[in-house]
């Protein structure tokens, strides 16, 4: 009788207190037995299982008793953090808003779970998309945005906030803060030296991150010392590597008082000829010291250099670009075809010089951010695939695959102050991960072999990604 009572008591205890063996942890999604790529160290952790709950990584380690409505067997495959494209554009006005929105799945299908919009004229639409993305009503990447660019009077890009005086600078920054943008983007089409430096200084006082195209009336040292957080493209960095930067800058400033002001492209040959490795090394030290990042955008530079002689009419990706966006390609295409043989030859030389700067920056400890510059008006720079092309060019330039991956993951998250919740595969971080067929540390082109994407904790299998992309395709 006592023995039976003991057994009954033990059974009841097991029911009420769970002493029936190891407790089964429950998740929304399990990715089992993956090779996890640590982008910070460049090492692979084999046979790791992820438990994802409420859009976050809740468990990472060896398999244990766990259950979920969906489980992915990732044996033999490689898991990386979702990629960040740190330079894209959503623009073209209300008439192109739907066409821009429809491109969002293309980023996801290429493993890009976050993008940084570098200024345009679709800000209200972007904030609406962000709400829809968060609610699961749209499939696409997380979007960080600068909102409208800051530029001078009669700015080139529609939607820009035009600034000249300190009062205008303050009003513009007030409006951006009211919009709750993620950073401030400056552009150089007509902005004055004083307004450019003044906007950086005021943004710095307010704790705002700034990036920009720099007018050639300003030196990179001046901008970095005022607090510029990143320089977009390499035209402005190259000028800072010239042993005649001060005199070139002074000549551009003086030309503004004449009927023929000197623009960037007019002085680039002089900048190129006066490149000095010693000056370049000093510039890199300054950028590292001031924590000013560089967004190289090698892919668009190469594409534009080859545009005069390349026929893109049969690009497979063109089928996913709305005719309304394709029509915005005409201006650059016409300009490329009108280039003289001498200009084409110089652009080839310039591209080679730009490429050589990238491993030097990396070796000097300057933060590199990977960006494609895809968007309306940027001819044939397609969403998604162009970032993968950027990373391939960075590796071809001399970076290791690990360093290129850092530029497209943890570096982007750190730059936008999101590294506590994104950029690596770590417990507690957002469940934005990409499952690949092969190891990208061995060959960066393996990033093109996406087996599945998890965005905001939601699984998109390869067939689902194909369906999303097909829905974008033009009839």
From TrEMBL:
Domain (Amidohydrolase-related) ranges:
78-458
- Top-level taxon: Bacteria
Could you list the residue ranges that cross the membrane?
none
Q: Name one Pfam family in it.
A: Amidohydro_1
* Protein name (database record): Amidohydrolase family protein
